Amino acid sequence: MGLHKTFDITEAQKLQFRWEVYNAFNNVRFDALTANTGVDQATSFGNLTKTLTIYRRMEFALRYSF
User: Using CA atoms, how far apart are residues 44 and 20, in angstroms rounded to an integer?
Assistant: First the structure.
């Protein structure tokens, strides 16, 4: 997801501000291959230990075009 705004400085010069967000809603996808399936450990049976997604990350950029 991203937003950007372009400002005209002169006819040939522009300044652009950008904001981009990765995993904007902070959704979590668990890795099914890391599920604890050992029946000998009843307290941790079915626990998922890792995720497939990364945390929410934001990037800001400023671009000057001439």
Answer: 38
- Distance (Å, whole) CA 20 – CA 15: 17
**What's the burial of 30, exposed, middle or buried (CB within 10 Å: 0-12/13-18/19+)?**
middle
Residues 6+ apart with CB under 8 A from 34: 48, 49, 50
Structure tokens at 4: 């950007």
> In sequence order, what are the beta bridge partners of 38?
none
Give the pLDDT confidence of 10-58 residue by residue, as tens digits.
999 999 999 999 988 888 888 877 777 776 767 777 777 788 888 889 9
Give the predicted TM-score (pTM) of the model. 0.61
With vertex at residue 17, the alpha carbon angle to CA 14 and CA 8, rounded to the nearest 5 degrees, is 25
Query: Which tokens hold the place of 41?
Result: 């450990």
